[in-house]
């Protein structure tokens, strides 16, 4: 374990006026600070009420403080948390006093970094802290909580253990060629690598879902001018986010607004109407709409139910599928006509954005479509981030390269090199690389040198 010699301090709550503010200090001086400032013994995990007086004995505030003894703290070190009134002036006075008493200002993320270095969490759990702070939906919160409690770490530990066993089988014949070992079973190794590739791919498949949870599901609203796209945006947002007019073509640029529907966060994007004969400014708006469709996850194709609809331009329609598109027949409170046949059998709902008729049904379908992005890994919600995906992709390439060498009956040394590279890629996710485990497994499995 690593225990730095300095004590860091920082405000743990957002800057600004509030009922309370929390100041956190971590390091070897934490217990001494309790005795110096409050003249109390540092009782672990016990909230105590006291006056905070600075180094000159001047009263600053009436506070609650709690001492956490290492290693049973968030950072694994002695920690002191001070809860004061949420006046920024008071919080800064306390911070300034702690700096004069031997603390230094913490760097961004330094508390979590110390927790990782002291073995309180692995890298994936440290990243989950940030995901938890920034979660904007129930599903994002659930995924962050499970990762914080080690869901991804457990899956990676299982993959790592199985890869180490496979690697140990190969390296036994490299390091101890003169020992009386059983014949090398390359077919068994090949089967195990197949399983490792499959399980790695399953985790990789959660990358897209992870991005959706962290960034929101990009949902583009498109359709003809005056079909009610902006009215639908306002209806879903619950306020007048976009100007609405009976004059067609009033939206010349796209508007974006995040909303929560069920347990998901959607980034609604209202686009310019797809006028087949646009004016110059409309044409620029349609070009921007096309840019948005190339990055969209879901589409809401709004159709005016009171008139025949026009086919979408091919540049737009080629992005639409029955899985990512919901047709919204709008203005169903007016006289409707028999809809023209659509190019595909899209799911659809009928609404009136003017009076919110059909809004619940629309929201229910959107929740179902958003849920379809989830990739189940057992009973846990796994949603890896871009760094995890890069490491897993590299591990998968190394495992596939090892399979090729097995098929070519290459030297065990070359096979071992690929598997060790895969092992190091796995370890990048947790931040732990332990080559001694390979030796431990090797000796335990083969009883070499008995």
Task: Describe the model.
This protein is an alpha/beta fold. The protein has three domains: 8-120, 2-Layer Sandwich (Gyrase A, domain 2); 138-206 and 382-446, Four Helix Bundle (Hemerythrin (Met), subunit A), CATH 1.20.120; 215-371, Rossmann fold, CATH 3.40.50.300. It is 44% helix and 16% strand. The protein contains 15 helices and twelve strands. It has helices at residues 30-38, 88-100, 110-117, 123-134, 138-148, 151-175, 186-204, 207-215, 229-237, 280-293, 314-317, 359-371, 386-407, 412-430, 436-446; strands at residues 8-11, 20-26, 48-53, 59-68, 79-85, 104-105, 217-223, 255-261, 264-270, 298-304, 325-330, 348-350. It has a six-stranded mixed beta sheet. Strands 8-9-7-10-11-12 form a six-stranded mixed beta sheet, with helices on both faces. Strand 1 (8-11) and strand 2 form a beta hairpin. Helix 6 crosses helix 15 (436-446). The protein is flat. The two termini are 33 Å apart. Residues 445-450 have low confidence and may be disordered.
